[in-house]
């Protein structure tokens, strides 16, 4: 008996709990080559490196099993303050006081910040494409999205200026105005584009935020996965009038399962987010904080940076393999920017209006999972020729095509591209060539969104999850409104 029908659709394994009083069995299903995830490679979570093992006993264990202060365990927030000072020491206004709040992942910090600032119907400035977790967190507010274009250098300053030109700076003083209250952006190797906001664009963006009195939400989980050795100046480090709230995460460099992120920003704003945390989860897991602190304390800031450099080097090598495979197999079929860090390659399919149906039906049928571009836009019903491939978990061999025969198949894919009658059966899947093969399948068969399908697909599953997620988020927002109105 399957524990749930969902597991049979998506998961590579499922639990069988039937007829076994004392045993749980793990069944394996055919392995999917997943290029979707923002999951880090587990082998990069090297807990034993650089300091051997550590024990959690006695008073330290007792503390780890107890409640903790809302902002975080003092020893960890102190360690993080030293890190932030080294990496982002705010320039200019020395009187600005910054504070840190540890959150259960930066996703939680983001949602709390949005709930703190936004009201239903407000406007918000977003770079497009954007992180789907943010879009999902914003959806219950029914916002007006002011979309800013991006290119190989991230958010475009001219596009931001154009988007804001319909307001005057004086509108920021008028509570009835619909001028946006905040800009959400990802400065480093964005999810999904893989590229950073160019260093020379950062100050002008901050100045526009200042001109229209907007807060800047700097969501930066990929900061430490920067391929170049030098880190560009963060928005937090450029901020001299207290308008940047920065979110960091340990998910990509220590462990996503720990659920540890931290918000850094002006104390009055961080205090408000802390109040929210106080009445929701109270504080981030003490056990997770203790584990992280033990490790970070053993490493020291320099040891942590050395570890992060090793992780970034691993992803740089993965990226090089992915680019080599793309150059070999996808030239003329798709366009892409070279990632500056992170774990994603953002591809634009040539001659394909929408990758949604192609990925959810054709690629999935070939046991490859990619994310269609529409997931990264506020209007996710609009067709998108883009798709996101993740190079975190696939091996270089899986990225490449081993058989010379593939070239012939690829050529036939090129010639049949866009033709509704393309014969997918002509492509047979080999274990190590599935990524490129499926990409070529996607490229080759044109728009299949209209293709009727009677059996549930991955897309159905994603839609189901999203609808549950939105429903719960809406309930949460309504619940918070009720709590607020009663207080
Ligand atoms: C841009 C972005 N922000 C936030 C998050 C959430 O990170 P965390 O695991 O710290 O909640 C992710 C996760 O993939 C992400 O890509």
From TrEMBL:
PANTHER family: AMINOTRANSFERASE, KYNURENINE_ALPHA-AMINOADIPATE AMINOTRANSFERASE, MITOCHONDRIAL
Organism: Plectus sambesii
Stretches assigned to the Aminotransferase class I/classII large domain: 62-401
Claim: Repeat is one of the keywords in the record: no
Short name of any one Pfam family annotated for the protein: Aminotran_1_2
Gene3D superfamilies in alphabetical order: Aspartate Aminotransferase, domain 1 (3.90.1150.10), Type I PLP-dependent aspartate aminotransferase-like (Major domain) (3.40.640.10)
Family designation: Belongs to the class-I pyridoxal-phosphate-dependent aminotransferase family.
Keywords: Aminotransferase, Pyridoxal phosphate, Transferase
Protein name: Aminotransferase class I/classII domain-containing protein
